[in-house]
Specification:
Zinc Finger, Delta Prime, domain 3, about 350 residues, AAA+_ATPase, DNA binding, Rossmann fold, single chain, 14 helices, Helicase, Ruva Protein, domain 3, binds adenosine-5'-triphosphate
């Protein structure tokens, strides 16, 4: 059974509930002859992927939703890289994170292969195929340079749509070849309306206060808000009405609570022993597939919330520094642990200076 976040995902540009101007703009582009390469960016759960798929539907029709997962092996001199692709007759979707530092090969080999095969469906509305690159901000520099060349060379039968959180890690040469499409996070009111709409479709009602509270808790991440609503509905035994008194405390993500507790441990004691205990918890988070940069950011935020005001900027600067070193280095655990050690030392120093 599909989660509500997937079940109630709008499929056409016309049915998108917010950023109507953006939807109309994409519709116009899809209907005009010349569709550009696009760089779609915005925060998590803002609706980027939904808009990309709706645009593909406007370009090719509902056939683009018939997707399958294909496993490919790319052989490069001595190494074999296995990647999973999502493919339809009209597009492929790749995630460069799967290939790590070998992502240049995916860009070169897979995209080239796709670009060289013409669309065999003579009745197809468009002669070009589309490559979606998700998490494009994790593309390495060599991969981005290879992509730039590929975009130029195969413009006749290929369009690239990149999806990422921010354009800051995308080289200017690619940005200048793309239409930049910003998908801002929906407002609290927009999220509340969507939640109440989903509740109606599922046959129950939700008090406006609860919908507003979930919207605020979700930090304007719509997917998260929908998941929270579903969790609340299920944990309350699928009631016909969720009243304003419903208890929202049980629907937080476990891993976030775990990180918040870890931050409390860091603030309570700064010692080698405590660092060892925190390391075990960091391993635990990584073993449960929480991305290292998400762990770093959430932990930094949780520590910053727990320290005195003057120390907050220092904690965030340290986290930014170690997140950067984590991107260019290997073994995320080293960088996470270094951040914790540094934060512990800084906090201890701060406390000593306060009492002197
Ligand atoms: N216009 C909309 N109306 C109603 N629901 C929407 C709309 N846009 C997106 N959603 C819902 O929000 C959820 C998140 O959307 P989507 O997956 O497109 O976000 P995203 O920005 O690609 O997220 P991420 O970067 O985290 O992958 C989806 O599950 C979808 O159901």
């Amino acid at each position: 059974m599909a989660l509500w976040a997937d079940k109630h995902r709008p499929t056409s540009l016309a049915s998108l509930d917010y950023h109507a101007d953006l939807g109309q703009h994409l519709e116009r582009l899809a209907n005009e002859g010349d569709f550009p390469h696009c760089l779609v960016y915005g925060p998590d759960g803002a609706g980027k992927k939904t808009r990309i798929m709706a645009t593909l539907r406007a370009l090719y029709g509902p056939g683009v939703e018939k997707i399958k997962i294909e496993q490919r092996t790319i052989t490069a001199s001595t190494r074999k890289i296995e990647v999973n692709l999502i493919v339809s007759n009209y597009h492929i979707e790749i995630n460069p994170v799967e290939a790590g530092i070998q992502d240049r090969l995916i860009v070169q080999e897979l995209i080239k292969e796709l670009a060289q095969t013409q669309n065999i469906d003579a009745a197809a509305a468009k002669r070009f195929k589309v490559v979606i690159i998700s998490e494009a901000d994790s593309l390495t520099l060599p991969a981005q340079h290879a992509l730039r060349r590929t975009m130029e060379k195969y413009m006749a039968n290929l369009r690239v749509i990149m999806c990422c959180n921010s354009t800051s890690k995308i080289i200017p040469a690619i940005q200048s070849r793309c239409l930049l499409v910003r998908v801002a996070a929906p407002s609290h009111d927009e999220i509340s309306t969507i939640l109440r709409d989903i509740a109606r479709k599922e046959g129950f009602t939700v008090a406006p206060e609860v919908a507003a509270k979930i919207a605020a808790e979700s930090k304007r991440n719509l997917r998260r808000a929908i998941l929270m609503l579903e969790a609340l509905y299920v944990t309350n035994g699928s009631p016909s009405t969720i009243t304003a008194h419903a208890d929202l405390s049980g629907i937080e993500y476990d891993w976030e609570v775990y990180i918040a507790d870890t931050a409390t441990m860091i603030i309570q004691e700064q010692s080698a022993d405590r660092l060892g205990q925190v390391r075990t918890r960091l391993y635990e988070l990584l073993a449960h597939c929480i991305p290292p940069n998400v762990v770093m950011r959430t932990l930094a935020k949780a520590i910053a919330d727990r320290v005195q005001e003057p120390m907050r900027p220092d904690i965030l600067v340290m986290a930014a520094h170690y997140e950067h070193s984590m991107c260019i280095g290997s073994k995320p655990i080293f960088h996470l642990e270094a951040f914790v050690a540094k934060a512990m030392a800084a906090y201890k120093r701060f406390c000593v200076e306060m009492v002197m």
